Amino acid sequence: MFTPENPLIIQSDKSVLVEVASPRYEAARDQLARFAELEKSPEHIHTYRLTPLSLWNAASSGMTGAGVVAALAEYSKYDLPDNVRRDVLELMSRYGRVKLIKEGEKLLLTSDDDILITEIFHQKEIRAMLLGKLDRFRLDVDPAMRGQIKQALLKIGYPAEDLAGYVEGEHLEIDLRELMAHNEAAFGLRGYQREAVDIFHAGGSSRGGSGVIVLPCGAGKTVVGLAAMAALDASTLILTPNTVAVRQWIDEIVDKTTVPREAVGEYTGEVKEIRPVTISTYQTLTWRKNRNADFPHMSIFNERDWGLIIYDEVHLLPAPVFRITADIQARRRLGLTATLVREDGRADDVFSLIGPKKYDVPWKELEQQGWIATADCTEIRIQLDDAERMDYALAETREKYGVAAQSKAKLPILDALIGKHEGDTILVIGQYIDQLKAIADHLEAPLITGKSAVREREKLYDQLRTGEIKLLVVSKVANFSIDLPDANVAIQVSGTFGSRQEEAQRLGRILRPKSDGALAHFYTIVARDTRDQEFAANRQMFLTEQGYRYQILYGDELTAFEPRRLAVEELAVP
Questions:
Q1: Same domain (yes/no): 73, 115
Q2: Domain boundary among 41, 72, 94
Q3: 282, 309 in Cβ contact below 8 A?
Q4: Residue-wise pLDDT tens for the chain (574 aa)?
Q5: Which residues of 210-225 are buried (b: 16+ CB within 10 A; e: fewer)?
Q6: Are residue 58 and residue 144 in the same domain, yes or no?
Q7: Whether residue 225 sits in one domain with residue 289
């Protein structure tokens, strides 16, 4: 059967082509985002792929194989290939076919399928993690191997549902305030925040307690973390990307919960406090004297009887923290992120060790509800001059991106954009420190890099928040967990190659709803016909999946360009 108005063409290799011009494109895209991964996003046809991990994440968040098949069939131009239908049903049925449960002090791997248990028992890697075979349906697992066996099971295609439960941890009375401490304004959870916490907590049962909540930047992921703490009433360890984020968590805890300030500890390079609620950074935990030394600060995981560990920006989790997380599977674990995309391919480890995706919501849905700002994305392409083209031509492959990304031809475009946003609060974001220093000098604007003292960073962020300064140049240290509610323009001059997660995070710096309802503007300046342009296309894939479209301009078109402004009647007010 042929349905021409439908946007999907589903192929036997489990790739899905999507016609962007179809009237049903947006509805189909929102469905696909739940169970498929975006691979390519040229202008007219996008390509998704059904992968085992994308399907298992969908299964863990409540979708069934039949539901995925029905969604594909509803939006497909042609009949669903039979092998795709069968593979989707088969793969999704594998999630939870084996379960980890606790019986007394024993950790058991169980299944109703005795042949599957036999197959697992004879896997060499898994056999080393077992203490024995109890009967046809149960294997005795070394409790110290709880994390590692989940990783191994995922590799052989049978992701385990972990129902072995958790230690309760040290009790700590935590309630959410009805009035915020700093201004006594009313405070309460938004509907989607409450839903996310309820799904994660699962009434305190073993079906909850570990997993990842995926919400857009600016949608209040920190508040979800606070609500999870309040649901559990337990001492909590919170891991964040940087010291500024640590301080923001402390402020939020004191402002929105009943936890007193003296019960909240900072564990960073500057301060080492371990209290009922302790906040640290990934960098602090992974510090060591040399490559052969131990990680002295990993002991924080055992310093208190933690009832909950929160991994903020979980997609950044470094390998050493994965390893220690494999050893603490009896602790409840909550991952918070705007995207499960990992450029290092370790999304499998997030699934196995932190937990599967429990909840997500499309960015555009929250934009329509007014919970995050409406954003326009624009890519502006500049031409290298002859000298830069020669430098680019002669550069080694690994150096070509740096040559193109740091083109001096970006400066006039930057000036023009800033001129078109007079009165707006603007971030200029880049990767290369020399480039950023030159830009900051040219604009006579302050600069934040990784070498800036934490106190200096906080001072400049505060000045931006209060409107004392309207323009700030920042390196990638500002990619994550920085609350700048009234920043409404971001201009990206260079980045970490083709990183999709970085693109999402940088847009996120300007997505918090504006006090005046203003539109957010996200600009990327790229050198055309270079690696800079190629990487930009890859960076945009995640946001394209979320429904953002990039307007493409060439440098000589910028004079006639005027940024869109929302009319009063368009402003969304939650």
A1: no
A2: 94
A3: no
A4: 788 899 999 999 999 999 989 999 989 988 998 899 888 777 688 899 999 999 999 998 889 999 999 999 999 999 999 999 999 999 999 999 999 999 998 999 999 999 999 999 999 999 999 999 999 999 999 999 999 999 999 999 999 999 999 999 999 999 999 999 999 999 999 999 999 999 999 999 988 999 999 998 889 999 999 999 999 999 999 999 989 899 999 999 999 999 999 999 999 988 999 999 999 999 999 988 888 888 889 999 989 999 999 999 998 888 888 888 888 899 999 999 988 777 667 788 888 899 999 998 888 888 888 898 888 999 999 999 999 999 999 999 989 999 999 999 999 999 999 999 999 999 999 999 999 999 999 999 999 998 998 889 889 999 998 899 999 999 988 776 677 777 899 999 998 887 888 888 888 888 887 766 678 999 999 999 999 999 998 888 878 878 788 899 999 999 999 998 865 444 444 4
A5: bbbbbbbbbbbbbbbb
A6: no
A7: yes
Its domain, for residue 254, covers 191-361
Which residue from 394, 415, 366 is spatially nearest to 525, judged by alpha carbons?
Answer: 415
Last residue of a domain, one of 361, 377, 398: 361
Query: Which residues fall within 8 angstroms of residue 65, CB to CB, at 6 or more apart?
Result: 55, 59, 88, 89, 90, 91, 92, 93
| Both structure tokens of 90 | 């088969």
Residues ≥6 apart with Cβ < 8 Å to 186: 178, 179, 180
Q: How far apart are CA 45 and CA 8, in angstroms?
A: 10
Shared domain check, 110 and 70: no
Q: What is the pTM of this model?
A: 0.85
Whichever domain contains 281, its CATH number is 3.40.50.300
Walk across the sheet containing 130-135 and list its strands. 130-135, 138-141, 106-110, 99-103, 161-162
